[in-house]
Amino acid sequence: MDVFDPRVFARGIPHDALRRLRDADPVSWQDEHEVGSWPAGPGFHAVTRYDDVRRVLRTPQDFSSWLGATQIRDPDPADLPFIRRMILNMDPPEQLRLRRLVTPAFTRRRLERFAGTVRDRARTLLEAVRGRPFDLAREVTDDLPLQNLADLLGVPPADRGLLLEWTNRVIGYQDPEHAVPVHDAGGRPVNPRSPAQLADMFGYARELTTRKRVEPADDVWTALVHAEVDGERLSPTELEMFFFLLVVAGNDTVRSALPGGVLLLAEHPDADRRVRADPRLLPSAIEEMLRLHPPVLTFRRTATRDVDLAGTRIARGDKVVVYHVSANVDERHFADPFTFDPAREPNDHLAFGQGPHLCLGATFARMQMLAFFAELLALPPVALHGTPRRLTSNFINGLTSLPLTWAR
Ligand code: HEM
User: Fold this and answer.
1) For the domain 6-403, what is the CATH superfamily, name and number?
2) Nearest CA to ligand 1 atom 11
3) 245 close to ligand 1 (CB < 6 Angstrom)
4) Whole-model pTM?
């Protein structure tokens, strides 16, 4: 039951294997075998039940984001100090200090200001494909989150291609279609997250910071550049690392959530009809989409001490990987977990994580989903018109192609 290999996820979520792991081996050992030109790794514990995933995420003193950072593949030891400067890869109390500084930039009022633009954009993109078969991912949802993120950051629209290139370099590197392969002098693949591969992006972040100091605007980057809490400010390096994180975290996640939700509606026409008949169900339908199609499949932690989890002994220094995609359909926590119930209540899914690192962009992500689906549901229903193509990744639940046609 290999739930490590990124190619497994390209064929579809391995729900059968995950269910068997939840039942028989909820903290299972996974071999990190060689994949393509990537060398083998030391292996990890895969955590698949809801309660255990929650515990790992809420106990940073036992399961650290800092020790080995948060990606399944071990970073190059030389890059570790650099990666640890990102809030995502810190533990409290350092993480909380940064969190206090950046959180006020994401006020609901500021985010809501973008809602009208997001809706207009969604409408325009959908109008352009009306009345003909189309590829939702390629023609509509690949670009929408990128435009919205550029707005949020106050990046000129013309520069959003750069944001896409950086995202693809970091996230898509396991996928043959999205990868921008980078090799060292010996021909070995190089982790595209290493600082040397991202020099252009950091240069851009510095320029943006200078611009927002001179020409402040009502965007998140201006707010971050000027953020001050109890006399503390973000250092130039902290700003650069946060730019890096926002570019990556704010793009591919929503780019996965939108087609993921549409595919669910196309596969569940009854649910689609219920939401159309009662649009007040849209917010809870969106939570249900996030539960059944969590844009982030997994996150990694490292044990700080010997610890017992669901009867399995985890040794200090072991890699522990939580499976949001499994926790969200754990039959111990959700009744009829594979039923798409647009009115499900409560729906405490883990798509945005849990504990100190709970997603900082959740409000912005939900707002984009609400705007997009409000526009989509004003149009006739859609139906699958070919085979969807999935991203080769054990991290992002990506749909790179979603061929659809209008049902009427
Ligand atoms: C549906 C879309 C999204 C999903 C499913 C998602 C999911 C997540 C998850 C699971 C985490 C926790 C990581 C961990 O436990 O280590 C996280 C953290 C984070 N997310 Fe999101 N995210 C989404 C959209 C966004 C957007 C749009 C932004 C920014 C504009 C964003 C910014 C962040 C940041 C900054 C963190 C790090 C917080 C910290 O380390 O304290 N996310 N996200």
Assistant:
1) Cytochrome P450 (1.10.630.10)
2) 359
3) yes
4) 0.95
